[in-house]
Amino acid sequence: MKTICFLTILLPLLANSQAPTERDRLFEQEVEKMFPALVEVRRDIHRHPELSNEEVRTSGLVAEKLKNLGLEVKTGVAKHGVVALLKGATAGPCVAVRADMDALPIKELRSTPYRSENPGVMHACGHDVHTACALGLAELLSKHKNWVKGSVKFLFQPAEEAMPATFQGDWGAKLMVAEGAMDNPRPVAVFGLHTTALVQPAGTIDDGMHYLKAGQIGYTPGVDNANSDRFHITIHGKMAHGSAPHKGVDAIAVAGEAIMALQMIKSRQTNTRQPLVISIGTISGGQRENIIAEKVEMGGTVRTYDANFRDRVIEQMHRILKGITEAHGASYEMDYRKTYPSIINNAELVNATLPAFRRLFGASNVKELIPGMGGEDFSFFAQVCPGFYFRLGVANEEKGYVHGGHTPLYDCDEEALKTGVLALAAAVCDRLAAGQ
Ligand SMILES: [Zn+2]
Ligand SMILES: [Zn+2]
User: Fold this and answer.
1) Do residue 386 and residue 282 come from a single domain?
2) pTM for this one?
């Protein structure tokens, strides 16, 4: 009898918690009205992609739109970054939202009306979508300040994709933090989203990649991605005639042995339960077919989750390179750069945000994901305050949006712009409503 009474009370409550709230309905209607303009902004940014630290037009467009909405706008942060503050109707904490703005050196292969007009440069990582979503959020919340119980700081970031080989010193998120973007006011939470357009190939086993369709959101409750580092190795040998290799030290042969041995770190020298990727992406050396190569240069990336484990891997790389080069009378140098720390989502913040996502998009469209081995400098913001970096599905098989990021056919189902704005708005308003 008691159980029945308990269920009669609990079940309607549970059902009710899934029902849209007044705010959900209002924001959905508003975002529906804003949709054509959101698409236009996204396409404008897509047509005019700019490489890392060259985001002059994009940041100008962003700053102008934010000023027109009446926000306090600061430009020139970390070169072309824009920081803006939206004050709500009532006093309260500050919550930050980050959107990255830069594009990639890829030639776009799609022939859409909004195809890149900057030859060889393309928004192939969805940063056009991220920027459009954050601008949409600024517009939505500017119109409905009564739902903003505090302030919202917008972090429009340059140079997320920048390479350490091309930039000395700091850049992107790290430089924005160093220049005070997270101070005055200091946010109590920071949110960011990233598009994912991958579709699981038919008949394959789910390999844990981020397969999300437009209308879906993905998240991890803790570690989200990897410490992402880059290294450059030079192997020095001794030049000789190709017909007399014993007179020299063949840097190419030594490099070949070193590459194989570096892979042994993952397969034989570390605990298999500790995630690790060591990839060599570039190699060059030698002058001619009949000359023993004097020098080989290789570039690569190391991905880990644990910072101490990463230090051990670096030591192991040095040990292998030292041992192999010495054994053959060669020598080496390694320039290893710790680039982006791993993003660790704040579990409390994630759990407090998920109910709104489930209400808005349906529980089956809010998916827990396996952490990836990608790198992202959102982590520098999430080191200042609790952070939640989630994935926005943009794939749509019927429309042909099935190509992953950093490829020349990448594109997204623009319906996802609505999901992105609604998700950010719910995350921000809920966190502000929770107070300090
Ligand atoms: Zn990217
Ligand atoms: Zn990206």
Assistant:
1) no
2) 0.91
Kindly state whether residue 11 falls inside one of the protein's structural domains: no
- Taken in order 365, 371, 376, 379, is the CA torsion positive or negative? positive
Q: How far is the CA of 163 from the centre of ligand 2 (A)?
A: 13
- Distance (Å) from CA 53 to ligand 2 centroid: 15
Clarify whether residues 346 and 234 are in a common domain: no
CA dihedral 85, 86, 88, 93 (to 10 degrees): -30
Shared domain for 40 and 156, answered yes or no, is yes
Closest CA to 179 of 155, 162, 161: 155
Nearest to 194 by CA among 123, 138, 126: 126
Which listed residue (211, 219, 340, 410) is catalytic?
A: 340
pLDDT at 94 over 70: yes
Q: Are residues 179 and 166 in the same domain?
A: yes
Asked if residue 1 has pLDDT above 50, the reply is no
Structure confidence at residue 164 as a pLDDT band (50, 70, 90):
low
Q: Which ligand is nearest to the CA of 392?
A: 2
Ligand found nearest the CA of 196: 2
Q: How far apart are CA 250 and CA 131, in angstroms?
A: 50
Distance (Å) from CA 192 to ligand 2 centroid = 11
In this structure, are 305 and 221 located in the same domain?
A: no
139 included as an active-site residue = no
Q: Which long-range contacts (CB under 8 A, 24 or more apart) does 162-167 make?
A: 162/52, 162/53, 162/102, 163/52, 163/230, 164/230, 164/337, 164/339, 165/230, 165/232, 165/299, 167/52, 167/53
Residue in 210, 196, 211 with CA at minimum distance from that of residue 371: 210
Gap from CA of 130 to ligand 2 centroid (Å):
9
Coil, strand or helix at 223: strand
Distance 124 CA to ligand 1 centre (A): 7
Indicate if 161 belongs to the active site.
Answer: no
CATH of the domain at 277: 3.30.70.360
pLDDT at residue number 199? 83
Give the tokens for residue 266. 């993952």
**In this model, does residue 284 exceed pLDDT 50?**
yes
